[in-house]
Amino acid sequence: MSAEGLLKVEGVETYYGNIRALAGVTVHVNRGEIVSLIGANGAGKSTLMMTICGAPQARTGTITFDGTDITKMPTHLIARRRIAQSPEGRRIFPRMTVLENLQMGAGLDNLKYFNEDVEKIFTLFPRLKERQSQRGGTLSGGEQQMLSIGRALMARPKLLLLDEPSLGLAPLIVKGIFEAIRKLNKEEGLTVFLVEQNAFAALKLSDRAYVMVNGQVTMSGTGKELLADPSVRAAYLEGGHH
Ligand SMILES: Nc1ncnc2c1ncn2[C@@H]1O[C@H](COP(=O)(O)OP(=O)(O)OP(=O)(O)O)[C@@H](O)[C@H]1O
Ligand SMILES: [Mg+2]
């Protein structure tokens, strides 16, 4: 692995029963990068993200994070190594307030930074500050996405995994969320691995990207290269909003 290598997924296969969802996936994320994974419904994007977090576990191949083999590590120990995830569908706690949701993200290790970290998240997403006493389940879709990212950030991650942060949100809200991700990357040096069906927005934001088809990576390159690639344009960008 290169000196900057933070996450290295090598030849990973993941199964659901007898069905192979990932068929030998290799993906690298270097420190300080924003890397995205694009692909159609059912390609295996979420499965890769979940496999990195250890549930389901890879059946073959290896996943190395920050120099440690995490392939067979239980999920809670992977999280403790500072990989945080905002999963598909956001999965915030609907009956808890915004502040309580953030507390859940912090875990016991980080409680001493709680006030400082909450302030940072409120600066990033002022809307969450206004709504701090409101129950998660009553937030709008965009606010729930902000909360899901905020909760992941409370874990003080070295790597932030985001699964479809733009799903179902209006373009203006998506823009705000992507700007927040860019800001975290530029100002805090946060490394981000992003799964998106909104290929245009993801490629514009990313240093590098991978294309996944049927559980395999079929293409990779810089965000710019993939944006300009005719086959990527035809499959993922035609008719998309710019
Ligand atoms: N828990 C599960 N049990 C069985 N099969 C599953 C399970 N989760 C996902 N799959 C299958 O694995 C394949 C990959 O699914 P996955 O959710 O990773 O795709 P995706 O690229 O994230 O799709 P989307 O863009 O719709 O979120 C699909 O064929 C899906 O039906
Ligand atoms: Mg998915």
How would you describe what is shown here?
- This protein is an alpha/beta fold and 242 residues long.
- Helices cover 38% and strands 27% of the residues.
- Strands 6-7-8-3-9-10 form a six-stranded mixed beta sheet, sandwiched between helices. Strands 2-1-4-5 form a four-stranded antiparallel beta sheet, covered by helices on one side.
- Helix 3 packs parallel to helix 6.
- The mean pLDDT is 93.
- The structure holds adenosine-5'-triphosphate and magnesium ion.
- The site of adenosine-5'-triphosphate has 13 residues, from strand 2 and helix 1.
- Adenosine-5'-triphosphate binds at residues 16, 19, 21, 39, 41-47, 88, 197.
